[in-house]
Amino acid sequence: MNEIEELYYRKEISTRSLNVCHLNRLDSLEKLKKHFNKYGEFQKLNNCGGKSNQELVDLCKKYSHIQNLWDLPEFKDLELDEFIKKLSTSQKYSFSVFAEKNCNQIDNRTKNAICLYLDNDYSLDNLIKKQVLKKHFPVNQIQGLGKKSTKIAKDIFLQLRKDLLESKFNNLNGTEKNRIFSIYSEHLPKELVEELSLEKDAYFKNIQHVLNSDLIFTKTEKQIIKHKFVLYNVDDFMTPREFYEKFGFNNDEVNPMKSSILTKFKKYFAFLKDFKTDFELTYSIDSKGDVLSFNHDIFSDIRKSQGISFSNGFLSYLIGMVFCGEYKNVGYYKSCLSKLIKRRIKSNSKFHFKIYYQVKTKLAKKCNFGGLLSTLSNQQIELNSISDEEKIALVQNFTTSHIDQTKLRLFNCAQYILTKENTT
Fold first, then answer.
1. Could you state, in order of their start, the residue ranges of all structural domains in the chain?
2. How far is the C-alpha of 152 from the C-alpha of 179, rounded, in Å?
3. How far apart are the first and last CA of the chain?
4. Are 153 and 142 in contact (CB under 8 A)?
5. Are the beta carbons of 414 and 376 closer than 8 angstroms?
6. CA torsion through residues 3, 9, 11, 16, sign
7. Average pLDDT over residues 346-351
8. Residue 357: closest CA among 300, 321, 324, 316
9. Three-state SS for 356?
């Protein structure tokens, strides 16, 4: 049932007005008000007489203060709202996995339409935002559903609501293990996957198994990883001369192998991206903004919780893999790849970062953050008090973007980083 049908059953419009809306594909209050705001009437619609026109005009005026019918108090789902408030973060995540699994088991047409409507986001927050778990959700507002698919979608949403309220999603150990096993299997040899921990928070710990695996790295590559990469807090780093004297390989032979190892890192550590949600939940990371910040505490927490001794530089590289494609490293560990293969590197920025940041990739590619931050930190102005035009002018010399809105976002990123640095 859509909003217009709901209004009809509430006897707020006549059968003739309902038919006018059906005929002209005005199946929601939003569409109805959009037409009214544009034309000021409905008289020119097919089959719309004076009485129907007046009914629809009155309806738009009556509900001008709300976006859709489901915002009205009588449509609030208090039972669901109160239940969700009591859920823990891990329970919300478990239900998200449960919901996606169930939606993937229906026919392709319905599944694809639901996936498109949800933007491929089955998190509980998004299911609530899209209102699909509400009692009165109008399923036929999902595009691409036929008569049969509409019934299937309605049934799946009602069942998900029931399963949520009855906590049927809590018994997910088997499903969770299968999910984690399939993630590792997609990126690693089967023989190695069988040796890994399938606990959902063991993804960094399993990196150690990958590094030690004869299936991935040769004996020589392992020696280079141990003595020519700075992956651990224990200092086993060797100078070129020390490495040559012990293993017989000079720099001309080692450097191509370093490149090969980094390629393998990128390939075999790619599973970390599939644990992004787990990482965010475990370490309370909110990746909805343009900037992510990581205090040194997170590196200590990771080492302690997973029983590993990886260096801050290597952990920053691994965190970069978690958010690969979405965010780009800037800040203290911007050169984290360089930090993997050198004990000491010169700063490539006049601004010395205290902690580690990532910025949305689309923004970071267009900005020299080191130069921008250095300039802003030396400005004798109150950044909160300047106008948008002044912000755009300050960013101008450090970005390749010609879009003012992008420049403002870049300025806001830089301001956030400076504020964080000054309070650390």
1. 3-73, 76-165, 275-307+346-422
2. 25
3. 54
4. yes
5. yes
6. positive
7. 46
8. 316
9. strand
Strand partners, 359: 291, 328
Structure tokens at 8: 């009809």
Q: For the beta carbon of residue 48, count every other beta carbon within 10 angstroms.
A: 21
CA 307, CA 215: separation in Å to the nearest integer? 23
Structure tokens, 170: 């809590």
Q: Which DSSP letter does residue 171 get?
A: -
Block residue for tokens 């198994």: 209
Distance CA 220, CA 366 (A): 39
One-letter amino acid for residue 86 of the chain: K
| pLDDT at 128 > cutoff 90 | no
Dihedral (Cα; 101, 102, 107, 112), 10-degree rounding: -60
- Please report which residue ranges of 24-75 form alpha helices under DSSP H: 29-39, 50-62
As a whole number, the mean pLDDT across the chain is: 83
pLDDT in tens, 209-218: 999 999 999 9
Q: Which two tokens stand for residue 388?
A: 């948008």
**Contact (CB, 8 A) for 261 and 221:** yes
Using DSSP, state whether 153 is helix, strand or coil.
helix
Instruction: Write down the H helix ranges in 166-239.
Output: 173-187, 190-193, 203-212, 219-228
Tell me what pLDDT residue 76 has.
65
| In 267-351, beta strands by DSSP E | 291-294, 327-331
The whole-angstrom separation of Cα 234 and Cα 242 is 17
User: Given phi > 0 = left and psi -120 to 50 = alpha, else beta, which region is 131?
Assistant: left
Long-range contacts of 192-199 (CB under 8 A, 24+ apart): 192/216
C-alpha distance from residue 417 to each of 291, 349, 388 (Å): 8, 14, 18
Asked if 132 and 80 touch (Cβ cutoff 8 Å), the reply is: no
CA distance 294 to 159: 40
